[in-house]
UniProtKB/TrEMBL annotation:
Belongs to the TRAP transporter small permease family. Keywords: Cell inner membrane, Cell membrane, Membrane, Transmembrane, Transmembrane helix, Transport. InterPro entries: DctQ, TRAP_DctQ. Part of the tripartite ATP-independent periplasmic (TRAP) transport system. PANTHER family: 2,3-DIKETO-L-GULONATE TRAP TRANSPORTER SMALL PERMEASE PROTEIN YIAM, SLL1102 PROTEIN. This is TRAP transporter small permease protein. One of its GO terms (molecular function) is transmembrane transporter activity.
Amino acid sequence: MSDHARTRELIDLAATSEGIGAPAPEAGLMGRMVDKTGYIFAAGIVAAALILLMEVFLRYVLNSPTIWAHETTVFLCGSAFVFGGLYCTCRDSHIRVVLIYDHLSSRARRIADVAISVVCALASGFFAYAAYHMVTRAVFAPSGEIRLETTGSAWSAPTPALIKIFIFITMILLVLQFLILAFNYARSGQGD
């Protein structure tokens, strides 16, 4: 077993036994930054839960519901779910079918990791391209002026435009993270 595979197993074991994880070493500085940013989105989910509790109290106890609670919680949770893909990528904790992967040699695994990272970067690039088109329709009016798409409710917050912009930015960051992973996986095997 290579040093890389042993290191990976030790990190996975530590994460499992302590209940915490860490970004994959191959994720580099960007992975560490994404990992730290995760706390913001975790706080957003807690805030969404508190907002919903407050809304239940206001609606059913005081008979005075808000017009913004539902849209705010949807936005906060949606943002966290979008960010979750980038977060899982930097931690190398995404779902992986290991039926074949576990039977590969360490060199073949490294090659597979590089190939998978490149394919994922390409797929993320296609999603970023699609998200770009969503953003242009959500941010610009047909006349070309900036007009953020809103929910159309009584509060009419611009959360649809904001979430589409966030998806676009996240997909670009995913492309970058996958390319960093591919480069570092390829570089880790140069001593073989």
